[in-house]
Amino acid sequence: MDISRLLTSAVAAPVVVISVIASPASAEDPAKADAAVEAYVEEWREANGVPGAAVAVVDGDEVRTYLSGEDGDGDPVSTETPFLVGSVAKTFTSALVLGLVEDGRIRLDDPVNRHLTWLDAPTMTVRQLLTHTTGYTAGDGLAVSERFDNEPGALRRAAADLEHHGTPGEYAYNSADYLVLGALLEEITGSSFAAVAQEDLFEPLGMTDTAADADGASTLAPGHRHWWAWTRSYDPGFDESGAPYGYVISTLDDLVTYARAQLAGQVLPRGIAGEAWSIQEVTGPGRGYGYGWSIDGGDHRRVHHTGATPGYFAHLSLIPGEDRAVVVLANSYAEKRAPSLSAAAADIDEIFGGGSATVRAGDPLLSAMPWLLAGLLPIGLMLTLVARHLPASPRLRWVCAVIAGAAAVGLALLPRLLGGTLGFAISWLPDLAIAVVAGSVMFLLAAVSWAIRPTRDAGTPRRSGQHPPRTYASC
């Protein structure tokens, strides 16, 4: 998920530009290309607080790898280090569903209720699920994510809890659609999603270290999240109920194998591959979404997908016309760094091809917001102290109480204004969540302090020489 796109135009803030660190290179000069890509990866990793990264460029029959940093256990990153791949898993789910279509077991325009009779979706079709046009929103998917349900039937339970808040027929990227596709796969095959993926996709391709269940993810080291300027380890466990849209582990070696198989036409059914890699829904100028893939059109056509979970980032980018692919894996993720993280695959491809690139800045608003909210805490504390120690007229005290209460409510509602919930913020934006909770509590205390502070009765006699209580024109 990328809420930074919702906020770009909301508030103007300064953008820090990272210096250019890559000089022109050429794929015909491997040493120069390697040095340029390595320099970019190092600067990108440092700029985004990524403890460990694994990158590969597949160029025809040649594979160049770039490894940097450590995993969450302190071991050097290798081509066999497992990472969570996030929404790159949607490409796996799409391939499995299209395989059922090729076998005649389902059709793209089948109503989903024909197979999932328990799902409240009377008009939803398989094609709509693949293209994010069912009417589910990003928030609908987030509402059932990170359940960490690893018991049998986890996908059905999560899908049964889904609610619709969008408009059917309109494109809205979300994880709910692929959760339902995962449940559909289980219903049609009679096997768990993890077993179907293993038997029909991972094993045939030789992806020996890729898994979609908790047992297969036992070797996964902790990922990392950002807290203000610090990177902190994060290890909540594996979530099988999220496997069809994000909770799959893989390695650089396996994703290189997958990328090469995709470029060779060995994954998608030949009769449907063209549709899968074509724009089915327009998402922007020259851009769109196919069946489980984002498509960037133009002369340098890219078929790709980013992926993020709390703690990990991945990007698989295919350039079919040039028989090239770029794989990027990182053991850290922050929404505020999403623009920079997502730009890496295209930048590395540009550098490898002889161009140059700049490590991009993150989202300025999301980067600044936790600090701005933390800066409100002293204000709330000051208001509380003033309310306890300085007198004021009853009317003024109530005005101050209302203002402080409104600030508390506004902070509490901030996660919803960003398109999520407090639970979402705790998982994806922990520093923001802490600042929101602390700020809400502080301003609530201030509101209560102003509301209940006792005032002297005007009829109470004063002792000789005692001055009347002062009043203040503002709180």
Tell me the total number of β-strands.
12
Percent in helix? 40-55%
CATH topology assignment of the largest domain: Beta-lactamase
Low-confidence stretches: 1-26, 471-475
Query: N-to-C SSE series?
Result: HHEEEHHHHHHEEEHHEEEEEEHHHHH
What structural category characterises the helix and strand content?
A: alpha+beta
Query: What integer value in Å does the Rg equal?
Result: 26 Å
Main pleated sheet: 8 strands, antiparallel
CATH architecture of the largest domain: 3-Layer(aba) Sandwich
Spatial order of the strands in the main sheet?
Answer: 2-1-12-11-10-9-8-7
- What characteristic shape results from the CA principal axes? globular
Number of helices: 15
Q: What is the class of the largest domain in the CATH system?
A: Alpha Beta
Rounded average pLDDT: 89
CATH superfamily descriptor of the largest domain? DD-peptidase/beta-lactamase superfamily
What portion of the residues fall into strands of 2 or more residues? 5-15%
